[in-house]
Amino acid sequence: MEDKARKDTAKKETRRSSTSPKPKGKLSGAHAAEDGKDASPEKEKGIAEKVSQFRWVMCCLLFGCRLVCQANRILLGALLPIIRKDVGFSDQEAGQLLAAFASGYMLTQILGGALADRLGGKWILQLAINAVSIGSLAAPFAIDQGFWPAYWTYFLMGLLEGPSFPTAGSMLSKWIPATERATASSLADTGGSVGGLLALGGGPILATMVGWRSTFMVYGACSVVFCAVWLLFSASRPTGCRWVSQAELAMLIKEGVVEQQPVQAADVDGKEVLAAASLNKVLAEAVDPDATSKKPSKTKSEDGFPWRMFLSAPVLAVCYAHSVFNFGRYFLYGWIPTYYSEVLGVDAVTAGFYMMCLQVADAFVKLLVAPIADHLTSSGKLSILGLRRLLSCAGFLGFGGGLLLCCFAPNAFFVTVALVIGKSFASCHAAGFKTNYLDITRKHTGSVAGVGNTLATLSSTVAPMIAGSIIQASGWNAVFVLCFFVNVSGAVVFGLFSSASCIDPVVRED
Fold first, then answer.
1. Entry pTM
2. Residue 299 carries which DSSP code?
3. What is the per-residue pLDDT for 353?
4. 3-state SS record for 309-342
5. What are the structural domain ranges in the chain?
């Protein structure tokens, strides 16, 4: 009888457990793995459909960084004629003051790019925009103290802003898939064009209204506001960013932008957060607690500077293309205002308006070409390498051709038309060789861009000096012809030796 009673009790318990409702909600850990369902199908579908677009917010923030850096850099040159009337700097002192920024700028690009690759770019760019903002606020006081205080102020601004270009490239490589890089790179690069436009166009106008000292203060104060925005919303990588959805993160993993491993990172409030590489990674950690302690294999160059990469043809090609671009660009900015004044007899205000037309065309074409370029690659109509070569070869030949047309232009209007045509073609480089930095390396974008921009800065330094010597010896037409052939050489080298394949070293350590 007792055995029969125990059997009846066991049957009742079995029926009770089978009819009891299952707990609702998401199961975690091994229980979720056993059950096979950690969320309802509707919830999973909702997460999959909700792909955030924070990578484009990051592009807009990088646009702002380039704008702030370029506007504060160029503002001195835009206001220098007014400053000289007030302070009395000589021609030699004015030239040295303009060179002070570049002297510091070229010293920190390689180091800054390498640090961005290793540590992330947020705080390096934070330092750069803070420096130019505070520098503009301090500039009136330094200039009033004399030449040397002003010189060292701008030297330090250049020194701390130097890493900005390679760091921006390093951050884009960690945020943007290959099929969106032309648009993203062009959007960030357009910030420099808009910054130049605001400095060249807005600076002198504001100075006539409130004075040059107050103009520096206004630009500096506006830049400080952006520094706060950057601090609050930017992140070096998607895996360390609180604003990125799991769906967007999964998409970036699928595109090969983010490595498929969790990373411990601190958010802006100082709290430690687990940046999961995918939705399934958290579940895998619950099943295998040692999953996060397994270190991925590393390449030999991962922890060091990629010296061997600079012997490869693709890296040399993009560095040469950047140097050729800067040679023509800084000849244009350095000498064309003088050409308007001395050869064409145009007053300074009208010449400034013509130069602003070039900046407007530059920004417009960058924003127009980039989405078309990405559509061509994402739809399979053109390979990434074919696109990069097409745009940069067109940029070099078009810009060189525009300068060559200046030899035959009868007046200032036709010279401006020729220069606008040339500058519009040159704007294609934003989706050409400038984006190619992101194609050829994933781990060392900052280092490679730092070396490339350092060489380009040297080119931009010697270009005005070479042009001045040729103008004095042979006249203006000789310089226009020289710039044409230099740009042709850029098209040939980049067209033959560039690559869109990642050339990061693949030899692995044991």
1. 0.74
2. B
3. 84
4. HHHCHHHHHHHHHHHHHHHHHHHHHHHHHHHHHH
5. 51-241, 242-289, 302-510
